[in-house]
Write a structure and sequence with these properties.
about 650 residues; alpha/beta; GMP Synthetase, Chain A, domain 3; 7-stranded mixed β-sheet; 5-stranded parallel β-sheet; 20 helices; 30 strands; about 30% helix; binds ligand 6R9; Acetyl-coenzyme A synthetase; nucleotide-binding; metal-binding; acetylation; ACAS_N
C-alpha cells in the first residue's frame, strides 16, 4: 500500500518543546504511560475518578459502566447532570464570569466579545424562549444556523432544557434538511434569515421553507429565525417567529433541567455506506467528560489561552470543540463566521495575529489550499503575519500528508508548536488517537498513539490482532464514555455498522484502515474501508450520491468513486449511464453540469461530483456486479493492468477514460 510505504520512509521526529512539556497537563511520555497504566490496572475506577473530578453532578453516579446489554453500553447511568450548567454556570462560580468566552468575528471582520456572564444570560433567555413555545425535555430540535454566537447559544439552550438537538450543516440542501427533520421527528427548526460567507448572503430560511413544504414534517410547530442579514424573507404566520421576539422579556435565569447521564444530548447525521445518513446519538455526561478531558490533554488548554477551532458547528468538530468542550473548561475561544479565503487567503493568519490566538485547530484541506494561495501570492504567506502567540497547532478530518504537515509546522508554527494530528469521528465524540503536545514526539503524517483510556487496535477481518508493520482494520476494544450510543431510530443498523458479529459483537469498528509502525507502534490511518469518501474533510457516502444521481429522470445508472485530489484529499468522480444515448462534446458538458446542480440540490454543494463520465454501460462482472475497483483506476487516469477477463463488457472501459 502506498500509504504504508510513505510512512516507512518518514523518519523525521519532532519532540515537544521543553517548556511546553514541563507545564503540560500530561507532561512527558512517562506521565502518558503512567496514566495508561492506571487505566490498565482499573479501567472503570479510573474513568469514575475522572468523571467525579471533571464534571459537576446534580446526583452523583454509583455505577460506572453497564455492559449487560452490549453493545448498548451505559456510562454513569444513575448520575444526573446538565451539560449547559457544566459549560456556563460553573464558570460563574469559579471566577470566570467576566472572562471572554467567545470572540466572534463576522465575515466582514466585525468583532464581538461575549463574557461567560453574558453568554449565560443569553442562553437562559433563549432556553426560556424555547420553553415558552412548549419545547421541553426529550423533544428534538433541528438547528440550521450559521456560525454565530446565536448558533452556539441555540445548542446550549437545548442542552439546558434537555431538548435533543440535531444540527444540520448550513450547506445541506432542502431535501437533506427535510430527511433529517423527519427522521428526528423534530418539533422546531432554529435557523437564520441568511448566512454571510465570503462577502455573499446565502439563504437559510427559504431552504427551511422549501424543506418543510416537501411534506412529512408535520411534527414541526415552530420555526425560530435569527435575523443575521435583515433582507426580505417569506413568513408563515403562526409558525415562524423572530428569535428576538422569542427571547424578548424572558428571564435571564433558567434553572437547568437535570437529566440522566445517558440522556441524548444530540443527534448528528453522518454518511455511512448505504444511501441513508445515520443519526449518531450521543449521551450527556460521557460525551461531555471526554470533551473536557481532551481539551485538557490534547490541547493542554490553560486559562490564558486564546483557542480557535475553525470548524463549523454543523460538524462534530464544531460540537465538541466549539459548542461544548471549550466552554466546559472556561476557555476564551474565537468563533468565525466566514471562510479562510475572504477577503484574501491570509484571513486565518490575520485573525491569529489580531486576536493573539495560542491554539489553532483546522483541517488539512484548508492548510493545503492556503499553501497553494501562499505560493501564488507572497502577501498572504503566513510569514507576513505575527503568529508568535501560537503554541499548539491541530489538524482534523482527514490524513494530513507529510508535506502539508511540514509546511504547517515551519510556516505557521515557526518550528516551535507541536502539531496534534487528531484522529476521531462523529461516532467517537472526541479525539481517539493523537499526539499529546507536551509528551508525544511527532512524526509527520501519523496520528501517533491512542489517548489514555482508548483501547485502539488493529485487527484482521475476524478480529485477531495484527502485528505492527502490517495494515488492518482499526477497532476500539473497550467502550469509552463519549462513544456513540445508537443510531437514532435504527438500533439494528447501529449493531451491524459498528459492532459486527464477525468481530465478536462487542468491539467498535471505526470504518478506517490503519497500520502501526514496527518500532514506535505509531498509528497511520490509511483511509476508509467502506464506501465512504472524505472530500475536504467532509464525509460523503458513495451510495448517497449514487441515489441522488439515479433520482434524476435522465439517469439510468450511476457509480461513484473517490479519486485522490491534491487539495481536497479525495474528489468525487461519477460514472453515469443515461436513459438516452451516450452524450459527447457540448451535450455531455451540458448534461454533466445539470447533474452536478441536481446533486447540489438533492444533497448539498459539497456532494457535487468534480468529474462526470458517461458510458453506454458500466464495467460489470458476468453476474452484474459493478467493478468499482476498475472505476477507481480509471478515475485516477491510470492504465488498467488487472485481468479484465471476468468483465461482461470490456470495451466499455475505453468510453469511461475521459472526463466531460
Ligand atoms: C472528526 C471527524 C471521520 C473520518 C474518519 C477518518 C477521517 C478524521 C483524521 C482522519 C486521518 C485524522 N479522519 N480525522 N483520518 N487522520 N486525523 O472528522 O469526524 O466527519 O465523522 O469523519 O474522517 O476517515 O473515519 P467525521
Amino acid at each position: 500500500m502506498a500509504e504504508i510505504e510513505t510512512f516507512k520512509q518518514e523518519n523525521r521526529v519532532f519532540a515537544p518543546p521543553a517548556e511546553l512539556a514541563r507545564n503540560a497537563a500530561i507532561s512527558g511520555m512517562d506521565a502518558y504511560k503512567a496514566l495508561n497504566a492506571e487505566f490498565e490496572r482499573d479501567y472503570e475506577g479510573t474513568w469514575a475518578k475522572l468523571a467525579k473530578d471533571n464534571l459537576k453532578w446534580n446526583t452523583p453516579f454509583t455505577k460506572t459502566l453497564d455492559e449487560s446489554n452490549a453493545p448498548f453500553y451505559k456510562w454513569f447511568e444513575d448520575g444526573r447532570v446538565n451539560v449547559s450548567y457544566n459549560c456556563l454556570d460553573v464558570n460563574l462560580d469559579n471566577g470566570n464570569a467576566d472572562k471572554t468566552a467567545i470572540i466572534f468575528e463576522s465575515d466582514d471582520a466585525k468583532v464581538t466579545r461575549v463574557t461567560y456572564r453574558e453568554l449565560h444570560q443569553k442562553v437562559c433567555q433563549f432556553a426560556n424562549g424555547l420553553k415558552s413555545l412548549g419545547i421541553k425535555k426529550g423533544d428534538r430540535v433541528v438547528i440550521y444556523m450559521p456560525m454565530s454566537v446565536e448558533g452556539v447559544a441555540a445548542m446550549q439552550a437545548c442542552a439546558r432544557i434537555g431538548a435533543t438537538h440535531s444540527v444540520v450543516f448550513g450547506g445541506f440542501s432542502a431535501k437533506s434538511l427535510q430527511e433529517r427533520v423527519i427522521d428526528a421527528g423534530a418539533v422546531a427548526v432554529l435557523t437564520a434569515d441568511y448566512q454571510v460567507r465570503g462577502g455573499k448572503q446565502l439563504p437559510l430560511k427559504s431552504i427551511v421553507d422549501e424543506a418543510l413544504a416537501m411534506g412529512g414534517c408535520d411534527t414541526i410547530k415552530n420555526v425560530v429565525v435569527y435575523k443575521r442579514a435583515g433582507a426580505e424573507i417569506n413568513w408563515v404566520e403562526g409558525r415562524d417567529r423572530w428569535l428576538s421576539d422569542v427571547v424578548a422579556g424572558q428571564s435571564e435565569v433558567c434553572e437547568p433541567e437535570w437529566v440522566d447521564a445517558e440522556h441524548p444530548l444530540f443527534i448528528l447525521y453522518t454518511s455511512g455506506s448505504t444511501g441513508k445518513p445515520k443519526g449518531v446519538q450521543h449521551s450527556s455526561a460521557g460525551y461531555l467528560l471526554w470533551a473536557v478531558l481532551t481539551m485538557k490533554w490534547t490541547f493542554d488548554i490553560k486559562p490564558d489561552d486564546v483557542y480557535w477551532c475553525t470548524a463549523d458547528i454543523g460538524w462534530i468538530t464544531g460540537h465538541t470543540y466549539i459548542a461544548y468542550g471549550p466552554l466546559a473548561v472556561g476557555a476564551t475561544q474565537i468563533v468565525f463566521e466566514g471562510v479562510p479565503t475572504y477577503p484574501n487567503a491570509g484571513r486565518f493568519w490575520d485573525m491569529v495575529a489580531r486576536h493573539k490566538a495560542t491554539i489553532f485547530y483546522t483541517a488539512p484541506t484548508a492548510i493545503r489550499s492556503l499553501i497553494k494561495a501562499a505560493d501564488a501570492d507572497e502577501k498572504v504567506h503566513p510569514k507576513q503575519y505575527d503568529l508568535s502567540t501560537l503554541r499548539i497547532l491541530g489538524s482534523v478530518g482527514e490524513p494530513i500528508n507529510p508535506e502539508a504537515w511540514m509546511w504547517y509546522y515551519k510556516n505557521v508554527g515557526n518550528e516551535k508548536c507541536p502539531i496534534v494530528d487528531t484522529f476521531w469521528q462523529t461516532e467517537t465524540g472526541g479525539h481517539m488517537i493523537s499526539p499529546l503536545p507536551g509528551a508525544t514526539p511527532q512524526v509527520p503524517g501519523s496520528c501517533t498513539l491512542p489517548l489514555p483510556g482508548i483501547t485502539a487496535a488493529i485487527v484482521d477481518e475476524t478480529g485477531n490482532d495484527i502485528p505492527n508493520g502490517n495494515g488492518g482494520i482499526l477497532v476500539v476494544k473497550r467502550p469509552w464514555p463519549s462513544m456513540i450510543r445508537t443510531i437514532w431510530n435504527d438500533p439494528e443498523r447501529f449493531k451491524k455498522s459498528y459492532f459486527p458479529e464477525e468481530l465478536g459483537g462487542t468491539i467498535y469498528l471505526a470504518g478506517d484502515g490503519a497500520v502501526r509502525n514496527k518500532d514506535t507502534g505509531y498509528f497511520t490511518i490509511t483511509g476508509r474501508i467502506d464506501d465512504v469518501l472524505n472530500v475536504s474533510g467532509h464525509r460523503m457516502g458513495t451510495m448517497e450520491i449514487e441515489s441522488a444521481l439515479v433520482a434524476n429522470s435522465l439517469v439510468a445508472e450511476a457509480a461513484v468513486v473517490g479519486k485522490p485530489d491534491e487539495t481536497t484529499g479525495e474528489s468525487i468522480c461519477a460514472f453515469v449511464v443515461l436513459k438516452r444515448p451516450r452524450p459527447t462534446g457540448d451535450e455531455a458538458k451540458q448534461i454533466a453540469k445539470e447533474l452536478r446542480d441536481w446533486v447540489a440540490k438533492e444533497i448539498g454543494p459539497i456532494a457535487k461530483p468534480k468529474e462526470i463520465r458517461f458510458g453506454d454501460n458500466l464495467p460489470k462482472t458476468r453476474s452484474g456486479k459493478i467493478m468499482r475497483r476498475l472505476l477507481r483506476v480509471l478515475a485516477k487516469g491510470e492504465a488498467i493492468t488487472q485481468d479484465v477477463s471476468t468483465l461482461e463488457n470490456p470495451a466499455i472501459l475505453d468510453q469511461l477514460k475521459e472526463a466531460q
